[in-house]
Amino acid sequence: MITTTNYIEKTKTINLSQLPDNLKKAHEWVLKATENGTNWNAYENKQIKAVIDTTISKLNEFVGKHTPVVPPVVPKAPASETEHKAKPAVRKEHVSTQKTKQKAQEPENDFEFVERIPEEIRFIRRYLSLNGKKKTKEDLLRFINALHRAIIEKKVRKSSPYAKQMEYIQEKLIKTYNSMGRTVVAEISDKTISEFKALIAEQKVMPSVMLIKRYITLNGKYDVKEKAKVLMEAMTRAVHLKKVSKTDKYAKILDAMFANLNSYVKNKSQKVLSIQETELNGLNGILAGCGCETVNGDEPESELNGLEGVSTAEEVLPKPTGVMSSMVFKNMQFRTLGFTGKYLKLIGDPARGFTAMVYGKPKMGKSYLCVDFAGYLARNHGKVLYIAKEEGLDMTLQEKLKAKDVAHPNLFVAEEIPEGLSPYDFIFFDSVNKLGLSVQDLEALKRANQGKSFIYIFQTTKDGSFRGANEFQHDVDVVIEVPEKGLAVQNGRFNQGGEMRIFEG
Question: What does the alpha-carbon distance between residue 334 and residue 323 come to, in Å, rounded to a whole number?
């Protein structure tokens, strides 16, 4: 009788090739759900339990119907010596043939679906990609440093089933690095390539997890409706081809993803795909895997030999959370950008990730102000992207860049919002109205680009008020108005009432 406790042992005795297709697929599903019988935690789920119980019941029914009937023993006349010797040879040939048939029926490429490819397999893939390619010392040093970081962060451990491969890669990289000139053509032996490729082929990422990854990459991206449609088609196809079933542990998450994508595609006014922060945190948790440093309360496992003591952590001032004493809070230090000169007088000294809005009537100087501000930030505080949808990349913008003398390697210009904003520290939208961005779009962009500072430029109505919902003004740290030609007045959280003459200095 097959049960959950002897499932793997008993099913090995069954000729799986004789199972009906639906029962064979059910058996394969049970193996995946239980990690080949090593983890039955999923059995606690009612739906999964029902599927497993049904599969076990059907397998027991199949075994009962197909158990060979042992024929009764009938006394036979003594065989001649020749016949007696010939029979074993026939029997051996029959057994040999059966074994050959069974081997032919076994799948050649067997692999396991996993939620996340182990970090070690990623390094093995990266190592194999070096073969036959010309690499510099800097290339190898980056690889070595990445391996160091993974070990310090406990992503690679001494108890890992791939520890020997990691030690081998480490040894080869360091040896090559120490003996090479400026460049080297990496050579990996055929034996190592064959061994490492076999390890890589053992695991594949679950189709549902691959879809989740694609979904997250669209978060906070501008004008990705076509990519959203392609992803929806991929999700539909995965279900149709039974790569993702209703019993998949992420089935409900995929349903919610599909609904959000569908809403985004159908909403003509929504420019940015927004994933709610709580949903995004949950999805990132799925992809990140366990970040625990201890196992069952034991001490953290030691690093691989030769890599102890390497520190890559950057010192950061933590953001306070939860409830804390006002006496402690008043003495906390917050890191600011360190504004100086006229922009310190106008705005104050904001922290990284601040938001600002600028508005004023046409021809009053708001674009000149913003171009000059962009130049100041590029020279002193990081990479800047100025999106000039209002005027476009034409002679007018070029004249402003020349007039304010702000051209700089850290200042980039564009006419449309690029798909990725990660390379930039400060992003200007000139203007929000021309780009057709809503409050929700700006919130989505901000949420998807933590730590980035956004400066929004608005058109105004005839009476001088900015064009758009009041929510825009409430959601920013700094509000700058250009009420008359050449004058900027600021009302915000860092320096109430600051003023600046736009065309001076």
Answer: 17
- For residue 389, what is the domain's CATH number? 3.40.50.300
Choose among 505, 457, 464: nearest CA to 478: 457
Contact of 486 with 364, CB cutoff 8 Å: yes
pTM for the complete prediction? 0.56
Residues 230, 378 within the same domain: no
Cβ proximity of 322 and 329 under 8 Å: no
CA distance 155 to 303: 10
Same domain, 235 and 156: no
3-state secondary structure of 336: strand
CB of 424 closer than 8 Å to CB of 384 = yes
| Whether residue 348 is found in the same domain as residue 495 | yes
Q: What is the pLDDT of residues 215-272, one digit of tens each?
A: 988 988 898 999 999 999 999 999 998 889 989 988 999 999 999 999 999 998 899 9
- Cα(358)–Cα(371) distance, integer angstroms: 12
Strands 426-430 and 384-388: parallel
Look-up of token digits 């009420």: 483
Say if 22 falls within a structural domain.
no
Looking at the 3D structure of the chain, how many domains does it have? 3
**Would 417 be classed as within a structural domain?**
yes
**Domain range for residue 230?**
206-288
